[in-house]
Amino acid sequence: MRKPFLFLLLAIMVVAGVACAQEKPDRKEEPAKLAKLGTHEGLVYVKGGTMLNAKSSGYGKNVTLPNFYIGPYEVTQKEWMEVMGSNPSEFKGDHLPVEMVSWYDAVSYCNQRSIKEGLQPYYKIDQNRKDPNNKSEFDPIKWTVTIQEGANGYRLPTEAEWEYAASGGQLSKGYAYSGSDHADTVAWYWRNAGDRYLSGEWNWPIIENNHNQTKPIGVKKPNELGLYDMSGNVREWCWDWYEGADVRSGSFRVVKGGGWIGDVSNAEISFRGKFEASGFGPDQGFRVSRGE
User: Fold this and answer.
1) Residue-level pLDDT at 124
2) In the chain, domain spans
3) Which of the following CATH numbers is that of domain 1-8+42-292: 3.40.50.720, 2.40.50.140, 3.90.1580.10, 3.40.50.10190?
4) Is the terminal CB of the chain with fewer CB neighbours within 10 Å at N or C?
5) Which helix H or strand E contains 69, and what residues bound it?
């Protein structure tokens, strides 16, 4: 059962700091290579290690990540259609990121894409058993989703993997956003995702009248690892419970990266968002990852 659209829009707005003055956008944005968008060209290899970016939330915690692979782009509507057969997105376009997808939709896609490509599904999804670890009062689905250890299929990145990759991994230059200290060069967010560049405080009627929406993947500049849109286009689902990486229960799943609706503060690498696994919205998507 899907939640009302208006509830989602209100729930996902984090507008701390919206009154801060923002720089003018870079109009010399890197053009999208539309001939390549929406096709599977392989994942980006991320060499493991500890967080080097002092602006990341994992810096100084002595957590060492193993090597892994992650998608250079958010999953597009074309990729989604090729696997799932229908398109739930609010804003339609082959090269736009898929959105209006819940966490359950995202893990289902990972498994179905794995099967389609001859890989072993990473998740075991039991739709008939309510997850006793899901403490949400508002999630009517509560599928029990567990990891199949050793499987080589597609999966959602963990929050730590996502943040490590967004910060540039071992190539990190210490940026606040994924690939830059200047949000407009790497991120789509409420000020720059419409007909004109907005100023003043966050205001939904102004955003709506400005025709803000998702943008084609890969238009803004990539980060140090060649990853695009990690600081803003759609927010991206991660595997973890919001309550912590080491806990096995909670009410919310983590979302990372800013979206076209949100404030620039949401686009910071360290920003942590949360949402019930059954939630979805027009600025809610994901990218895939795989183990080494």
Assistant:
1) 98
2) 1-8+42-292
3) 3.90.1580.10
4) N
5) strand 68-70
